[in-house]
Amino acid sequence: MRRFYSRDVSKELGYFVNGRIFRIQNEYTRRDGGTHESRAALARLRRDLDGGAPAWMMIGSDLFEDWSQTLPSGEEDPAALRAARASLALYAIHQQSRRNGVAQDAQSAGKRRMTFGRACRLIEPDTDHANGVKRRLAAAEAAPDFDGVVRIMRALIMLMRSAGDGVITLDYRSLTQDLYQIQFPESRHEVFQRWSMDYYSNPNAKSQNN
Q1: 97 burial level (CB within 10 Å; 0-12, 13-18, 19+)
Q2: What total number of domains does the chain contain?
Q3: Global pTM value
Q4: Distance between CA atoms of 165 and 184, rounded to whole angstroms?
Q5: Is 56 domain-assigned?
Q6: What is the CATH number of the domain that holds 35?
Q7: Which Pfam families match (predicted)?
């Protein structure tokens, strides 16, 4: 079992989960209304986050199909598995009933990666009126465990879904890496430092809302 944060695992995991998300997103947002398979996958992943223990046999094909041989197994690195599962579930909540993709595509990512901190700023760009967002971000940093952080992230993503008429997108490759890194005491603080910097140093937030 891995005891320390691995940048190599984080990078590989981010690319793997992002690829799975875009496979679902490309099918779900098709002009013909999307495929039954993509709608079913999103429903399974949302339901998995609602429960206590994961329903592994329900989400196995969504998570483990084509699991990269360069990624560790669940026994070798449980943090990688938890991060992948949480990222897919958060995406499923974010994408629900949205006809436009909420995962940031490569073209817009080339301009500026929509990290979690930047996306949170878009919920209410005026920080003087964003006490609810700031309170939740502070609560995530203070959460005693990974599940607590994910619950608060879910609440923030729900706010992104209801913020204005636009679609707040997220770079889910970056988010997956954050979810992995946050589980290691020696690297956890770096995630919240990055979220804080991205949240507060984004004066042109409105122009980033797609």
Answers
A1: exposed
A2: 1
A3: 0.90
A4: 37
A5: yes
A6: 1.10.520.40
A7: CRISPR_Cse2 (PF09485)
Whole-angstrom CA distances from 12 to 7, 19, 68, 118, 209 are 9, 11, 9, 23, 28
The answer to whether residue 210 is domain-embedded is no
Structural domain boundaries enclosing 199: 7-205
Q: Which residues contact 161 (CB under 8 A, 6 or more apart)?
A: 93, 94, 96, 98, 168
* Bridge partners, residue 103, by sequence: 170
What's the rounded Cα separation, in Å, for the pair 77 and 82?
9
Q: Take residue 190 and report the two structure tokens written for it.
A: 């770096």
Convert the pLDDT of each residue in 93-144 to its tens digit: 999 988 899 999 866 656 688 999 999 999 999 999 999 999 999 999 999 9
Largest interatomic CA distance in the chain: 47
Domain membership flag for residue 2:
no
Would residue 110 count as lying in a domain? Answer: yes
For residue 21, give the amino acid letter: I
Q: What's the length of the chain? A: 210
- Structure token pair of residue 8: 């190599």
